[in-house]
Amino acid sequence: MAGLTAAWKAHGAEGCVFKELERIEPEDDPYLRHAALKARLAHWQGKLAATALP
After folding, report:
1. Residues 11-20: tens digit of each pLDDT
2. Is the pLDDT of residue 3 over 90?
3. What backbone torsions phi and psi does residue 30 show, to the nearest 5 degrees?
4. pLDDT 10s digits, 14-54
5. CA distances from 15 to 5, 18, 53 (A)
6. HEC profile for 1-53?
7. Handedness of CA 30, 31, 34, 40 (dihedral sign)
8. Which residues, 6 or more positions from 26, have their beta carbon under 8 angstroms from its beta carbon?
9. Do 39 and 31 form a contact (C-beta atoms < 8 A)?
10. Which end of the chain is more exposed for a tag (fewer CB within 10 A), N or C?
11. Contact predicate 24/41, CB 8 Å
């Protein structure tokens, strides 16, 4: 959360955008849910040339 706060302070509201990029089907198995979310995170980081905040 500290990385998000730092980005907000550095770039302001105009420089930060929060959007729903995709909806995924609910998964009952925690392992499969984690694997699916991890895969989608990698997909969107690559597509948007994004990096994770610390």
Report:
1. 999 988 888 9
2. no
3. -60, -35
4. 988 888 999 998 889 999 999 999 999 999 999 999 888 77
5. 12, 10, 14
6. CHHHHHHHHHHCHHHCCCCCCCCCCCCCCHHHHHHHHHHHHHHHHHHHCCCCC
7. negative
8. 33
9. no
10. N
11. no
pTM across the whole model: 0.70
Structure tokens at 20: 């729903």
Are the beta carbons of 47 and 39 closer than 8 angstroms? no
Looking at residue 21, its amino acid is L
Find, among 36, 8, 39, the residue nearest to 47 by Cα: 39
Give pLDDT, residue 7.
Answer: 87
Structure tokens at 37: 């979310």
